[in-house]
Amino acid sequence: MKQERIAVLDIGGTRIKAGLFTEGNLTQQQEIDTLAAQGASAVLHRAATLLAQFIPFDAIGISTAGQVDVPTGTIRYANENLPGYTGADLRGYFNKQFNVPCAVINDAYAAALGEGVCGAAKGVADYICVTYGTGVGGGVVLGGKPYYGTGGSANVLIGGLVTHPQALRAGDPFAGTYERFASATALVASAKALDNSLVNGRAVFARLEEPPVRVIVDSWIDEVVAGLLSLLALFNVPMLVLGGGVLEQPYVITEVKKRVKALAIPGFEAAQITAAQLGNTAGLYGAFQMAQQLLSGTT
Alpha carbon 50 to chain centroid distance? Predict the structure, then answer.
């Protein structure tokens, strides 16, 4: 009996990851630099070359940076981290290269789906995955499927939640938003204002026992909690999955759980909050899920 083989990609502004799933198991992985400055055509060529080593395969799943129009597999919008990527037809390109079905999904949503396939949300139908890094990203999964909304964007923009209306400013779409105040970038910026040597999350948490540093971290955790409370009130899901390097700190996840439970509207405080489990492979698992659904006709 033929084994199902699904090739997967995770295309980011810095690195391209590729893998092969055989009968549902991630059996091979490779990774190269994106070299995004060379332009979209070069990036796609490098990705295809990486995938070619896994031939033969039955389908391709692609997790990618940028806003993805899932039905067509094209990029609606990508920022300057991937020059020339806006408008790229990823599904068409990889269909032509390999002549197999191809599914394309935004990387934040891929990570969310991945956690449902083989991570913290395995077996859970309704959950939200939020990742705190350079920005704040994530995905909403309802009934086991990604929920994108029906507006002009190609996904629900969790980082765009307005948490500081007094900071809204024309010309800066992220002024006053969750991303601006709750990202790991925001935490480090506040810490550097205290001490210029606190250049990353690792440095910050190494000095957590110092009262001035603890105050900054606690204030940032309050920002994280504010957004989570809004998401719970809006979607009423039973689970929140939190990812990103800073969320691997035991103090952070413990405090987030405690504060959400204490502050949530009655009836919403029982939601389970858990750390993501798959790390930087989550996008590959999500891409696999989309490709598998495409093959089975359940998308």
Answer: 22
